[in-house]
Write a structure and sequence with these properties.
Blueprint: E1 5-10, E2 17-22, E3 27-33, H1 38-50, H2 52-61, E4 65-72, E5 86-89, E6 98-103, H3 129-135, H4 146-174, H5 192-208, H6 213-226, H7 230-248, H8 257-290, H9 292-318, H10 329-353, H11 357-368, H12 372-386, H13 388-415, E7 418-421, E8 426-429, H14 434-484, H15 487-495, E9 508-511
Parallel strand pairs: 1-3, 1-6
Antiparallel strand pairs: 2-3, 2-4, 4-5, 6-9, 7-8
Helix pairs in contact: 1-4, 2-4, 7-8, 7-12, 8-11, 8-12, 9-10, 10-13, 11-12, 12-14, 13-14
Length: 512
């Protein structure tokens, strides 16, 4: 059986000299040093390894070392060096065939990188609880063994850091005394905005860790109201995005380009979402200000016509034996009068709110200044408030319908000679007396005659409730689209796919 050794070679390196790189977990050539002696090349590499940048690189890639000497027999190639032009002299036996695998060395300033999977931008972790819980059910994310993933990740880190290592060596060769930061990355440059963001972050952390009773009461009220109000949830989402922006201007601790690219994409994607939200919100505000009276009249007419008068007409229609469906007269009249009473009470309450309707539209205009998402959140809460009478009627009808179904199930057990055992949570055989069977027959007759009427009114308000939920869900979908649509990430994917995770590029394999 013939053994084969693999060498990862950068496709833009085609000069003779001492090869440096890593030999674990595979032989990965990072570059070539054009010096006379191996001791000189090793000394340069040792000085780079002792520097701060070199220590950060060693943590994610391992310690670089001199791997041997290469000599090119020709200087002409098409796209990358041909294996016949490379002669390697290192510790491995030359009797074994060598497979040269060529890869591209990406500059750290280009923010291009290799990744094993599509989780390259999840390094910072998601702050949204809903998204985090949803990603737990992502069946497309395959889990490999820890040892295999660690070995592959180290190799990928070496590909990503090869160009940076060459830049560190060139800097050492030039023997500059000033410390040069990463080329082209604004995240490494200290600025006044970074200092301001750090102060704001410290203030936020101090407020969160404060033991002041005012902040505890305010946080308790905020958390309790978050379950009922979309506006409160939107305020929390916007505060989380602003905090993410402040975190995005802070420099990355180590030299991992994946972290820099992830921070870059997260920062600008959040910035684009907020700016697009504000731009559309300001345009919507101007639209609401110009046609305020038209919208107010349309809202009053639509609410009174669709949510009050049409429901009354449907209730009166059901009470008059619609389509030959003969409902129970007394029960149907009781249902229709009770529900019309609730709707009339709600209509009177709505008429008392009409004088304050300009204030509601002023609040919508003010919310539009903070983005269209705030307007959508306020509309969601208004839908819940102004359609509360439908929710109340639905709760009454579904309660009666549920009790009637449970009564029917009990009577069915009675006719079968069984009863429900509460202690054991099962149905056991039981001998009933004649008077019990007679009472059960009378009750079953009443249920049989009343059930169609109860079911018709239940279907009516269940349909109305479903329509309300459909409108509410549509508004929530639009709100989620404006909050989480990755516009910048998609445009970056089209513009430069190698800066997005999950794309490894083309790795050419040539054997010798």
């Amino acid at each position: 059986m013939t053994c084969m050794s693999s060498v990862f070679w950068p496709c833009d390196v085609a000069r003779s000299g001492f090869c440096y790189g890593w030999d674990q977990p595979a032989v990965c050539i990072a570059g070539v040093l054009d010096v006379e002696e191996e001791s000189h090349a090793d000394a340069i590499l040792q000085r780079v390894a002792r520097s701060a940048d070199g220590q950060a690189l060693i943590k994610i890639c391992g310690t670089p070392r001199i791997l041997g000497r290469c000599a090119f027999t020709s200087q002409v190639w098409s796209s990358y060096p041909h294996p016949s032009d490379i002669e390697m002299f290192y510790g491995h036996s030359r009797a074994y065939p060598t497979a040269y695998i060529y890869y591209h060395r990406h500059d750290a300033s280009s923010l291009r990188f290799y990744a094993l999977g599509s989780n390259g931008t999840r390094l910072f972790g998601l702050q949204d609880e809903v998204l985090s819980s949803s990603l737990k059910h992502d069946f497309s994310h395959t889990k490999s063994s820890r040892s295999a993933s660690n070995t592959g990740q180290i190799l990928v880190n070496q590909w990503n850091s090869a160009k940076s290592l060459e830049q560190f060596i060139e800097r050492e060769q030039r023997a500059q005394t000033t410390v040069i930061q990463e080329l082209g990355t604004r995240f490494q440059e200290p600025s006044k905005f970074t200092a301001i963001s750090e102060k704001i972050q410290c203030t936020i952390d101090g407020i969160e860790s404060s033991k002041n009773i005012f902040w505890h009461v305010a946080s308790l009220v905020f958390v309790s109201s978050r379950e009922f109000s979309i506006v409160v949830q939107q305020i929390e989402s916007r505060a989380r995005k602003l905090r993410r922006l402040l975190r995005g201007v802070q420099p990355v601790a180590n030299g991992d380009v994946r972290l820099k690219s992830s921070q870059y994409i997260e920062f600008y994607n959040t910035l684009w979402i907020i700016l697009n939200d504000l731009i559309i919100g300001i345009a919507l505000r101007q639209f609401l200000q110009q046609d305020r009276q038209v919208f107010m009249d349309l809202f009053k007419l639509t609410f009174e016509d669709k949510a009050v008068h049409q429901i009354r007409q449907i209730l009166l229609w059901l009470d008059s034996w619609p389509g030959g469906l003969k409902l129970n007269t007394e029960l149907s009249r009781f249902y229709s009068h009770s529900f019309m009473g609730l709707i009339s009470l709600w209509n009177r309450s709505f008429r008392t709110v009409i004088p304050f309707l300009p204030m509601v539209f002023s609040a919508l205009e003010l919310g539009s200044a903070f983005g269209v998402t705030m307007t959508l959140a306020m509309v969601c809460d208004l839908v819940c408030v102004f359609m509360a009478h439908v929710q109340l009627c639905y709760l009454v009808s579904v309660t009666v319908y549920g009790h009637l179904l449970r009564l029917t199930a009990s009577l069915w057990n009675l006719f079968r000679g069984r009863r429900h055992n509460v202690l054991r949570n099962r149905t056991d055989p039981w001998d009933y007396d004649v008077d019990q069977l007679l009472l059960g027959t009378i009750l079953f007759t009443l249920v049989a005659y009343l059930f169609p009427t109860v079911m018709v009114y239940y279907i009516l308000f269940a349909t109305m409730r479903f329509s309300t939920i459909l409108v509410y869900a549509s508004l929530n979908t639009a709100l989620a689209f404006m909050n989480y649509f990755p516009l910048f990430a998609l445009m970056l994917r089209i513009k430069d796919p190698q800066r997005s995770p999950g794309r490894c590029g083309r790795i050419s394999r040539c054997m010798r």
